[in-house]
Specification:
The complex is a heterodimer. The radius of gyration of chain A is 22 Å and the shape is elongated. In chain A, 65% of the residues lie in helices and 0% in strands. Chain A is mostly helical. Chain A has 10 helices and no strands. The longest helix of chain A is centred in the C-terminal third of the chain and has 23 residues. By secondary structure, chain B is mainly alpha-helical. Chain B is elongated and about 75 Å long. In chain B, 20% of the residues are buried. The mean pLDDT of chain B is 89. The chains are: A mainly alpha, B mainly alpha. At the A-B interface, α1, α2, α3, α7 and α8 of A face α1, α3 and α4 of B.
Chain lengths: 196, 81
Amino acid sequence: MGETTPEPDPRKLAEEARDRVRFEEEALDLADQVYRVARRLVSTREEAEDLMQETYARAFRAWRSFQPGTNLRAWLLRILTNLNIDRGRRQQRSPDLQPLEEGDYYLYNRLEESGREPNADQDRVDERLSQDDVVSALSAVPHDFRDVIVLVDIGDFSYADAAQILEIPIGTVMSRLHRGRRILKQELAEQTVETA
Amino acid sequence: MAFSPGVDPCDECEKLLQPYLDKQLSDSELAEAEAHLEVCAYCRKRYVFEEKLRMFVRQAAVEEMPPDLKQKLAELRTPLF
């Protein structure tokens, strides 16, 4: 005598469908915020769009592994950063190979030396730096450092979230952020002062 | 509160810039930084600049999602039936 497969409980199925729909809607509501981070983790808009689609396809398939009540945006970004690494879009460079960066006052001092010093009372950064300067300087920061800057300074993630997303210790997040911001300012100085 | 004797207080203050803006300083470090900023226009100008720079970078780096991408993402949802 053959065994019969038990009929699925319709109430349970309906409940699961409802949970899945809710998950998908919440994930889609976060798409704008996820995209802003994705866009600065990769070089081109096309790459960012591909990465977003791969991320959402995977997230929708793996929705059961998301723990409700935890940070969905961080969960999506973790998928996205893993995909970005897996697909070999990044050319990893060891942080130790980077030149020693200048101090934290470097950019201000360079602007001051170049005669573009702001009036302290009406200090307007946007009068001296353009959006293109920032985008271009950011893309010149090595990936290991840029990822952390993008997550913390642009994506507004805490150190702890960034550590979880990138699967690195929180101390590494802090040191990469510190060095990364200095490298960013060096790049900005090179672009805005040395080409002036 | 004062920075260590024999050390340039502006150098000390520069080291505290990032953790200051990240609100990561201990109470004693915060008091030291603020006491120095109170009397040092050189560091104060650079702290103000850094704070504005961070805001500017955040705004400048934002590129909005292309309108058709959201639709493409929505199409990846699991069909209900």
